[in-house]
Amino acid sequence: MEKKQSIYTKDVILVMAASFFFMFSVMFVTPLINGYAISLGASAVFAGMITGIMSVVSMFLRPVAGNLTDRFSKYSLSFIGGVLILIGVAGYCLSPSGNWLLIFRLINGTGFVLATVCMTTWLAFLVPRSHVGEAMGFYGLMNALAMALAPALAINLYKVIGYKSALWLAVVAAILMIISIQFVGDHAKPKINSSKKRKIKIIQKDAIPIALLTTFFAIPYFITQADIVVYVERQHFSIAVGYFFVIYAIALLLIRIGLKKYFDLIRFGFWFWLSLIATILFLIVAAFMVNNWLMGFAAIMLSIGYGVIYSVNQSTALMLAPIEEQGLASSTFYLGLDIGMAAGPMIGGVTAQNLAPAYFYSVLLVIVPIILIVYFVYRKKLNGALSRR
């Protein structure tokens, strides 16, 4: 009996490591940038603009990055993205004022867009199509770990050594990302048919339902990321809210390791219903987190509701799209994520201002029928993704 070859080759492991480092670098800055901007003399409004400009840049540049990824070496574009991230985070450390911080934030955001789209597509290029789901599961895990560890480390470190000194760790992470990709042997150069003119496209049409579902599943996650501390204070819950995302990260780690092989074997519909039910349970339980047990349960439900569907959506977008539009499909998926990332905190702010705290999470159940409509309209396409590998 022939032994099954592992998909975790040197190149795959290096790309996953690089994805962890660049995401760590960007997410390390996220909880510090607002306070750092104010410490440099920026007003609260301008500091908010500096913080949020990255999401705006992402939404506009995703289609550009997708088209570039389908035309050029994934290594070249990832290298450029890594260098731009490095310039951005190093610029934060050297900025004398908020105006300079805004400029370096734009540079950092441009690098972030290139890196996210290219790294996803590069990894999908390095593994067989039949194992894209498994690879995306671990890729998503690397990102999730970076998103959980980096903010926690940043918050604790800056309190001890200050903003500028702490931000140098983000510089180190960006350097490690650039070093990692130097040792990847397959640079994933696209095969372009010179006899066929390629049109510039803004989105990959087959990935549109994935982008829509990603947006609505992401909204509760990013509302929680932005507002859970204030929400717990307003509700007077006596819980250790600082451990919420620690529990989330541990649960996500166990889920993705345990289910990694099944992402390529089970149709989209199973994962959809699992994630939707978990999301509904999260929104209900989050309204009544009166103790740490309920908080832990809510964190686990969010890790299933958002963490599972994130990887499934990412791999499904790549499987639905033709091989020559993998970069565009990836950028379309991330466009949905960007919209959820921008809309979540804004919806949270409006909800907090106009409704009693008790309704903060329960009102979000309004997204459930919208998610169901999207799924039932496109269910045949989504459930047929595995057969298109």
The first-to-last residue Cα distance is 25 Å
Unreliable spans = none
**Helix percentage:** over 70%
Number of strands: 0
Task: Give structural notes.
With 389 residues, the protein is mostly helical. It has 13 helices and no strands. The chain has helices spanning 10-29, 33-39, 44-69, 74-94, 98-126, 132-161, 163-181, 208-235, 244-259, 268-286, 292-320, 326-354, 367-383.
Which properties best describe this structure?
389 residues, mainly alpha, globular
Question: Which helices and strands, and how do they pair?
Answer:
Layout: H1 10-29, H2 33-39, H3 44-69, H4 74-94, H5 98-126, H6 132-161, H7 163-181, H8 208-235, H9 244-259, H10 268-286, H11 292-320, H12 326-354, H13 367-383
Helix pairs in contact: 1-5, 1-6, 1-7, 2-3, 3-5, 3-12, 4-5, 4-7, 5-12, 6-7, 6-9, 6-11, 8-11, 8-12, 8-13, 9-11, 10-11, 10-13, 11-12
